């Protein structure tokens, strides 16, 4: 248990001098030529979640309102959270395998496992929708006949990924799941999410696997309102969420939302402007996330990994190198704090190319590749080209000035 200085987290995070280049410096030392095993969990039952936007809304009174909202968009609206999200990732990883990675099948979560973070009345309401085609909420969440089992398998697969690292089968793992989870609240399905997969996994680690403290890092473009809600007053779950600021969906995640009661100080939000990218994400990781984790001392680090902050997707400007560098920092942190136990759970990501390539960039780092510093790709080539071309632009016969002159130094 972290006892005394919980309230100091935010003061520390803001005031403390950042450890210079903490993450990358450490991970470089830790991953030298290591070939790690990484287990990727995948289960075809999650492909049966195929909401149809033409079906009626529940409750019926919402139907008219939603129809008018959708018709006002001006373009046909399709359900963006569809099965091809998972099959695109699977396909890429089969075509371009990551050395050290292997697939395993997931499992369905039990009612008891889900009830650690959702109310029984909510679960009963969801379970009654088996076999139906309906909308659940004004908030973009619908189900098809296979959706309830898909959601049970998504949550159970996140648990399987956590169990694999605690059994020592792998240092780190990645649960490729859908429907996603981080918008799902204890009593409400929201934003394509039915059950909060990462929260179910965190609760399982604490209830069954002997974890006292769990850190959840959410780098999806959207704020993880459901995860924040579930652990709002819980001092043993540190929730760090970096996202595009309100009014972007779901509109929560302000700096001032820091938790409450015993959990005061263990909820850390970093809202960003729409065009923020790698530099902002990495600065937040190094200067806020790392000291927060060192203060909290987690037994496990979970990642709500959405790939919609990629520049090809909905918001923000993170690159593949950015995802890789963040993974490197988390890997180093997990090795320092909790024996390397690091589990990724898929959240959003709707551009199939950046989604699948983003997942692959994470897996390569988990498997042992040292990530490049974002923004440095091509710089070595430009330096070589500059050296190659430099002499062409010097007037013949002009005397060379030796002081502070790179051109002269290169030609020498
Ligand atoms: Zn998202």
TrEMBL record:
Gene Ontology CC annotations of this record: cytoplasm
SUPFAM superfamilies linked: Arginase/deacetylase
Pfam families given in the database record: Hist_deacetyl
InterPro entries named in the record: HDACs, His_deacetylse_dom, His_deacetylse_dom_sf, Ureohydrolase_dom_sf
GO biological process: epigenetic regulation of gene expression
Gene3D superfamilies: Histone deacetylase domain
Record-annotated Histone deacetylase domain positions: 80-366
GO molecular function: histone deacetylase activity
Family: Belongs to the histone deacetylase family.
Protein name per the record: Histone deacetylase
């Amino acid at each position: 248990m972290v006892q005394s200085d919980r309230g100091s987290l935010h003061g520390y995070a803001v005031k403390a001098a950042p450890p210079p280049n903490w993450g990358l410096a450490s991970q470089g030392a830790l991953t030298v030529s290591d070939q790690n095993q990484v287990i990727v969990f995948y289960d075809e039952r999650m492909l049966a979640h195929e909401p149809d936007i033409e079906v009626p809304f529940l409750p019926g009174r919402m139907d008219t309102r939603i129809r008018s909202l959708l018709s006002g968009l001006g373009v046909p609206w399709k359900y963006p959270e569809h099965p091809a999200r998972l099959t695109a990732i699977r396909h890429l990883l089969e075509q371009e395998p990551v050395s050290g990675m292997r697939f395993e099948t997931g499992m369905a979560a039990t009612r008891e496992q889900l009830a650690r973070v959702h109310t029984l009345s909510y679960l009963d309401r969801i379970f009654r929708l088996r076999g139906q085609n309906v909308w659940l909420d004004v908030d973009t969440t619908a189900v098809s006949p296979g959706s309830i089992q898909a959601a049970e398998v998504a949550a159970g697969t996140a648990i399987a990924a956590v169990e694999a690292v605690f059994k020592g089968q792998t240092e780190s793992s990645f649960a490729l799941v859908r429907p996603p989870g981080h918008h799902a609240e204890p009593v409400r399905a929201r934003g394509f999410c039915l059950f909060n997969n990462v929260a179910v996994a965190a609760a399982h680690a604490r209830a069954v696997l002997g974890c006292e403290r769990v850190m959840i890092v959410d780098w999806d473009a959207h704020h993880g309102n459901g995860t924040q809600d579930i652990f709002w007053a819980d001092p043993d779950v540190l929730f760090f969420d970096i996202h595009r600021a309100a009014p972007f969906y779901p509109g929560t995640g302000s700096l001032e939302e820091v938790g409450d009661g015993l959990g005061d100080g263990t909820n850390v939000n970093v809202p960003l402007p729409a065009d923020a990218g790698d530099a902002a994400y990495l600065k937040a990781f190094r200067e806020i996330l790392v000291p927060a984790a060192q203060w909290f001392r987690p037994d496990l680090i979970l990642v709500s990994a959405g790939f919609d902050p990629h520049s090809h997707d909905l918001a923000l400007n993170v690159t593949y190198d950015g995802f890789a560098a963040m993974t490197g920092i988390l890997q180093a942190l997990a090795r320092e704090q909790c024996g390397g136990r690091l589990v990724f759970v898929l959240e959003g990501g709707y551009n199939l190319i950046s989604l699948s390539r983003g997942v692959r960039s994470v897996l390569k780092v988990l498997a042992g590749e040292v990530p490049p510093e974002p923004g440095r790709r091509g710089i070595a080539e430009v330096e070589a080209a500059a050296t190659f071309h430099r002499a062409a632009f010097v007037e013949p016969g002009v005397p060379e000035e030796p002081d502070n002159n790179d051109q002269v130094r290169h030609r020498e």
